Amino acid sequence: MLFSGNTLPDEAVLDPDARPGLIAFLTEVLDQAISFVDDIVPKTFVEKSEKTSSPAVAKVKVLKREIDSQQLSQIPWENTKVPRIAPSSLGFNGEAWFARRSQHANQAQKGTASFSEFEHGLMVDHSEHEQEYTPDVYDARPVLDWDTETASTNLIIGESYSQIRMCIYEMCHKLPWPLSPRTFPVLLVTAKTARSSFIVVQIPVSIESLPDSFYGSGRNLRQGEDPLKRREPVTGVYASIERCRMLPDTTIEWSMTTASDAKGWLPMWVQKLGIPSAIVKDVGLFIAWVAQHRQ
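Predicted structure:
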């Protein structure tokens, strides 16, 4: 899935007739994300392994699903409530989706975290916090937000979604030499789905037309604050859905599903080898970050 400037609501585009309404857009994104995590993942993903991720006490289950090109070609990319751009490689390559799931004791203590700590770390200021606890992320650059329409007005959609925020970030990752750094432009949507559950959706978005982009426009080459930020990155594609909710026994279930393409000279088969360990590692990195801030 890839959004371009003219599929985004409100101020992101010049032609108001070419974009969906904000509430319709958010509802479609959040409804589809929850359906994907709650219905599609359990039915179509295959559990591959169970790992540890220190200092987290919880075990992390890793799941995978391969979607072939024939299945991708049947997706109605344009004739939907929210039109999207089909991947350029559609018809040649499939997609590899990976997921992880872990259950954590709802306690503010070593090796785990309370629900409020999960909410603060993952839903509130998601991108900035991801940069703090992920060593390879060297910039989380805000490009555009809809805070006036969402946060400042306390937008609530029906009985399903509250504390909604939508914004665009350029998430920048450094890779081992000799590979160039990567930037992943994402449309970030976060929302509470109940008193003790929330969702975080990141969708790849094309931002070349947005004047406030930093890496997409090349402004970083002149205005970057350090040598790494002044390098020309390769633009990759990243999508993810994170779901965090308290179960009836008060245990916290944290799941994440993702598909990505770092582009450049990094073959997809190499990327696939590294994704399972990377998503498992994120669990321990987050729990360690929570513990550090708790102190």
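Summary: Residues 268-294 form the longest helix (27 residues).
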